[in-house]
Amino acid sequence: MFEGLSEKLAGIFDQLTRRGALSEEDVNAAMREVRRALLEADVALDVARTFIEKAKARAVGAEVVKSISPGQMVVKIVNDVLIETLGSDAEPIDLNAAPPIAIMMVGLQGAGKTTTTAKIAKRLTERFKKRVLMASLDVKRPAAQEQLAILGRQVGVETLPIIAGQTPVQIARRAEEAARLQGYDVVMFDTAGRTHIDEPLMAEMAEIKAAAKPHEILLVADALTGQDAVNLAKNFDDRVGITGIVLTRVDGDGRGGAALSMRAVTGKPIKLIGTGEKMEALDDFHPQRIANRILGMGDIVALVEKAAENIDAEKAARAAERMRKGKFDLQDMADQLAMAEKMGGLGGIMGLLPGVAKLKDAMANAKVDDKTLKRQRAIILSMTPEERRNPEIMKASRKKRIAAGAGMKVEDVNKLLKQHRATADMMKAMGGAPKRGPMAQMAQMFGM
Ligand code: GDP
């Protein structure tokens, strides 16, 4: 599905990564080409524009690392923006609810709704060991209910017995009751589609939603319809409210724009992708893997990530040296906090070191948690560089404004300043003492 876009991007970056130095004009020219490639792949105009703005801004502010070329850096930036556009993290179907968990499937006729319903039921049964009941609420298409029953037999999932003459809402109620009384974990509602969105369809979906009280409402959309699929998702979300999207026919030779625009336009995650007609042809949607498939530059991305780790190590060493000399200012503190966050918060740092149980307890006693780290950094980031170097120059009025800027109280600002002072003093007093490890520094920073 992403071959066309992938080839174009490869062409653009191939030229870029071979150059030694890049001017701003080089970057701009490359971004113009990326924008064109995105639009040709049928990515929504706004999404392409935002994409390029983000990538350009980051390219300008990017830290220069000696071991990699500017072109490689640009590839990494585009990769990151791509992942963010796709939604950053995989979001599977949410099964955290009291059973029977209701899943409602919506979408246009022929999008692959019935097929996908059976695919999901099969996966929930086999992989998640759930007892699933499926019900077709499609009373318009004569064979629809029978089609679901056939697929159910094929994948070994039960379907609600068909009673002719019932309305969709009646069937939904009957399915919910059967699932509840017979102890099913999940009940899936396959609704009727139309060839296009119309008022009666939306009214019916709203009615079914009210009766079925679904925990998930998944829109099934055909990736081959590109922009139309995106508009469809927006419409369904505005009218019915969806919790996620399943993109089908990703195995086809569509241009990929739908996959790239969906999340940005609707704010709703693509949860799964259909990759064929077979019942097994359903995959989780992993933004990182898809980005890698589109860019096809995993090696460069890994290289830059590695180099970035080195920057962090250099920064840490620099900060440690400053600490040792008693020159630990608020900027250093912000850097340390940022590093702590990057390493997965306190939990992440703890996990890296053996025998830190004692420190963990100490931090728990001091009520230091990840939220505290974030808040403290937010306060520092609201200060000017000059204030970070010389906190003494801050007057009460400035502190008030800084607190407001970080969404906190003046007391919080004062507390942070006190903490910083205590740390800096202690470091000064220790001047010349042997270098201390990052954990000890961190502990000190929190006044432990
Ligand atoms: P519904 O009207 O939305 O319920 O659509 P169906 O489930 O009946 O599917 C319509 C057709 O699309 C069937 O022939 C399916 O086998 C096919 N189909 C569904 N999902 C996919 C997919 O991910 N890839 C491909 N290639 N075909 C699919």
Give an account of the 3D structure.
The protein is an alpha/beta fold and 448 residues long. It has three domains: 3-89 and 295-300, Up-down Bundle (Four Helix Bundle (Hemerythrin (Met), subunit A)); 101-285, 3-Layer(aba) Sandwich (Rossmann fold); 325-445, Signal recognition particle, SRP54 subunit, M-domain (434 Repressor (Amino-terminal Domain), Orthogonal Bundle), CATH 1.10.260.30. 59% of the residues lie in helices and 9% in strands. The protein is built from 20 helices and eight strands. It has helices spanning 3-18, 24-40, 45-61, 70-86, 113-126, 144-155, 168-181, 199-212, 227-239, 257-266, 287-295, 298-324, 330-342, 345-352, 357-365, 370-381, 385-389, 396-405, 410-429, 438-445; strands at 101-107, 132-136, 158-159, 186-190, 216-222, 244-248, 270-274, 282-284. The protein has an eight-stranded mixed sheet, sandwiched between helices. A hairpin with a 7-residue loop joins strand 7 and strand 8 (282-284). Helix 1 packs antiparallel against helix 4, helix 2 packs antiparallel against helix 3 (45-61) and helix 18 (396-405) crosses helix 19 (410-429). The longest helix is centred in the C-terminal third of the chain and has 27 residues, at 298-324. The chain is globular, with a radius of gyration of 27 Å. The termini are far apart. The structure holds guanosine-5'-diphosphate. The site of guanosine-5'-diphosphate has 18 residues, from helix 5. Residues 269-282 form the SRP54-type proteins GTP-binding domain. It is found in: Cell inner membrane; Cytoplasm. InterPro entries: AAA+_ATPase (IPR003593), P-loop_NTPase (IPR027417), Signal_recog_part_SRP54_M_sf (IPR036891), Signal_recog_particl_SRP54_hlx (IPR013822), Signal_recog_particle_SRP54_M (IPR004125), SRP (IPR004780), SRP54 (IPR022941), SRP54_GTPase_dom (IPR000897). GO terms for molecular function: 7S RNA binding; GTP binding; GTPase activity. It catalyses: GTP + H2O = GDP + phosphate + H(+).
